[in-house]
Each structure stands twice: as structure tokens, then as C-alpha cells.
Design brief:
single chain, 258 residues, alpha/beta, 2-enoyl-CoA Hydratase, Chain A, domain 1, 2 domains, six-stranded mixed sheet, 11 helices, 47% helix, 17% strand, elongated
């Protein structure tokens, strides 16, 4: 587990903190792997009902650390960098509980892709967002042209990716990239208040609603979502209870008058 990514718990709310402020929280491979591990820990803890992701210092996340991938040969770039990022970001997007990104610093390149894995984004007024990759002859590599298009619309992402334009928080709000803009220093407090609201609602209904919305926008496997929900429904019917009871009691099930 990387020391540059921390997980803390406050009641029913988990907070993931990117803690590499000297590099504007640019991600290296250890941080990417740590993010995936933290998703597994949150998913396995049924007491957690909402999560927040935040970055220390002046940057939410400056994307992938060029020092970590710049010297990789093409096949290794794909095998050990791009695919690892996709695994971690896909896991975050499909997190069992709602995820809120508190943007107290800039979200650029992979940082915007990371923010895009959250269900809700709260940005401070001084924050800037963008996809500058084409300026260094690269393309967004962690679903910037896929998930971000599905969530924010093709025209907004087309503009950012093709021009490299860096937009203010207010412009990002107008483009639909963030859900709310707050004064400097208030993003985390606002995220915590929103997470507390979410945590106070029906946990099963909230998790199912998120899963259904994800399926509707093509996030994850819609067939698996349908099958999982159908299985849960069947298991909690009177027929389901009778089927389990008959198996345990080693008798034929009686489904009459049910």
C-alpha cells in the first residue's frame, strides 16, 4: 500500500486522500494499485455508506506522473500502466457506495479522469480542470474519451481534449463537469455534509440506485446488474425462503399457495 494514498473512516463515511502534494498528487504505479485496494476494502465494509476522494495541497490530481511512464516502451506502457489505471478507475466508478470528489485543487488530465469516476464533484472556485494530453502528443488514457464522454457529453470532452483548454470551476459547472462550486477551502466540508446526507438514506436502495444508473450509462455490465438484482429479488420471496428451507431439511419443496 502506497504511503501517498490514505484511507480514513468517520462513522459511515470513508475518505480516500491523495497525499503527494509536492507532485500535485500525480499518480505513480504504487498509488494506482493502492486506489484499487482501497475500493476493495470499502466494498467489503458494510458499515460504509458513502465515500469521498480528495487531494492534499494545491492539486486534486495532476494526472499520471510522467516520470513513472515516460520511459516505458509501448507494450509496457499498455501492459503495466494504462491497464492498471483502467482497473483502478473502473473499480472506483463501480464502487458499491456513492463517491464524492472534493476538488480543492486542480484536476488535469488523469486527474479529471479520476474525478470523473465519482458520482458527484464539488469544486472550489479557484480550481481548474482540463485534458491537456494532446499538447505533449498523448491522448487521455484512463477513459477520458470514454467514461467522460458518457458522463459529461461528447461536445464538452471534444472541446477539452482537442484544444487542451483549461477551464475554471465556473466554466466546468456550465459544461456539466462539476455539480457544485464552493468558495476556496470549503469543498471537503461540503463533501462531508453531502456524504452524511447520503449515509442517512436507505443503504440498500442507495446502492441499488447507483448500480442502476451506472448500468443505464454503460458503466459496467448491465446484464450482470440485471441478473444480480433478479437473484436478490428471488431469494427474498416466500418461494425463495421455502426453497432454502427444503434444501436444509432434505425434503421436497412445497410451493403451493404461495
Amino acid at each position: 500500500m502506497s504511503d501517498a494514498v490514505r484511507l480514513s473512516l468517520d462513522g459511515a463515511v470513508a475518505t480516500i486522500t491523495l497525499a503527494r502534494p509536492e507532485k500535485l498528487n500525480a499518480l505513480d504505479r504504487a498509488m494506482i494499485d493502492a486506489l484499487a485496494q482501497m475500493v476493495a476494502r470499502i466494498d467489503d465494509d458494510q458499515a460504509i455508506r458513502a465515500a469521498i476522494i480528495v487531494g492534499e495541497g494545491k492539486g486534486f490530481c495532476a494526472g499520471g506522473d510522467i516520470a513513472a511512464w515516460g520511459a516505458l516502451p509501448p507494450i509496457e506502457m499498455w501492459r503495466s500502466w494504462t491497464r492498471a489505471g483502467h482497473r483502478a478507475f473502473d473499480a472506483l466508478a463501480r464502487l458499491r457506495v456513492p463517491l464524492i470528489a472534493a476538488l480543492s485543487g486542480h484536476a488535469l488530465g488523469g486527474g479529471l479522469e479520476l474525478a470523473g469516476t465519482a458520482d458527484i464533484r464539488i469544486a472550489e472556485a479557484q480550481v481548474k480542470l482540463g485534458l491537456p494530453e494532446t499538447g505533449i502528443a498523448m491522448v487521455p488514457g484512463w477513459s477520458g474519451t470514454q467514461r467522460l464522454v458518457r458522463r459529461f457529453g461528447s461536445q464538452a470532452i471534444r472541446r477539452l481534449a482537442l484544444t487542451g483548454e483549461i477551464v475554471t470551476a465556473e466554466k466546468a459547472l456550465a459544461l456539466g463537469l462539476v455539480d457544485e462550486v464552493v468558495p476556496a477551502g470549503e469543498a471537503l466540508a461540503r463533501a462531508r455534509a453531502m456524504a452524511a446526507t447520503i449515509a442517512g438514506r436507505g443503504p440498500a436502495a442507495t446502492a441499488v440506485a447507483k448500480q442502476l444508473i451506472n448500468a443505464a450509462e454503460g458503466e459496467g455490465d448491465a446484464a450482470a446488474t440485471l441478473e444480480g438484482l433478479a437473484g436478490s429479488l428471488a431469494a427474498y420471496t416466500e418461494d425463495g425462503a421455502e426453497g432454502v428451507a427444503s434444501f436444509r431439511e432434505k425434503r421436497a419443496p412445497d410451493y403451493r399457495n404461495r
